[in-house]
């Protein structure tokens, strides 16, 4: 009992490094291993299988011991916020996403009852870009006209355009707004107080067109739950362990897991993201059961197969920029590889985070239909640099401290220099490259530079995620969160009933 108490004190000490905690936890696990009955058929050396040892290790590290949790205030959205206001908030604060709060939910709902989901900035921008195309195709207004060949196939998919009876009203509203603008009467902005970014670039480009569309300005973020997937709210508490987070990130399509205040259960104090989980895994370097998994070659991990390559969504560098944007919207993917048309070799990639360029530079937004993807990458990259190599120890705390999903101090990798691997590289080498590049994906290339497979952070986390012989005792709070989102846990998997 005394040993367990000492272990808890050590791993909960925020002043100690993960390396120190690793040593203490592993001593405890090794003592437990000595009492295990190892069958004759076991591999030389006995002990726990790699994934089981990993499971025990992470189940002894509480989230409160992770640096950066609760360091900053987390930006939140309200269910009644309009989509335009939400975009402005996230853009000005340079935040990748935010939890959505519904203050009107009844109090009888258990922990974290006021949060109903997570919305990412890029999903909102993609939704609005599609609405722009719908409005331009439907209204046929001078200066906003799409040629018939450019009109999107899903041009009737917007909130307004889905109803044929609203078409004439939609056109009339847009024409009236443009007429008022021509007479010098400004359209009322729905921006949030304290708007900066030079007053959203003087309401030109993306934000200027945003002002002209009433359906975007009047649509609440709650509509995103119907028109586009938003992330389920699967929270954890500081006293929960890293095992909980590893299971959530690997078994669900989650980019980040919210950490909710343990006392009030009303406030999100930070996030554990996929890249943070990868960094935590890298702290296990040197442990035999970690190396047993990390030493696997990418060619043996199922990342590169003919089926995978054949189903890969890609676009060409000379395609219009909107081709990549439509691909991300249609297939609900957060990144698209860019290929050279003649050689089919990889020349770059466009990701969710790169959509900010359309908002940062109004002239790029205005040329989005005719600008090639290659030109967009050149403009967007600027002085961006890709950094690949082995992670530095000091990078760990700095990256984990970005627990508010902020991009303010993060260098975005260049679009023209994606993370790449060879088939012979190991899982650990891939993890290190992605960690150093702050990238969520990389590409396996053949000798000619053609893409053979894609490796995402979630793919890697799934390799390390322990199989579930039975539902682990995760506690009432965690079980309640799964139940509220329509999810259940069973042998070998965590399944959500609301996956798209």
Automatic annotation (TrEMBL):
Residues 186-197 have a biased composition (Polar residues). It comes from Ceratodon purpureus. The keyword Ribosomal protein does not apply. CDD domains: CBS_pair_SF. The keyword Metal-binding does not apply. It holds the Pfam family CBS. This is CBS domain-containing protein. InterPro entries: AMPK_gamma/SDS23_families, CBS_dom, CBS_dom_sf. Signal peptide: none annotated. Keywords: CBS domain, Repeat.
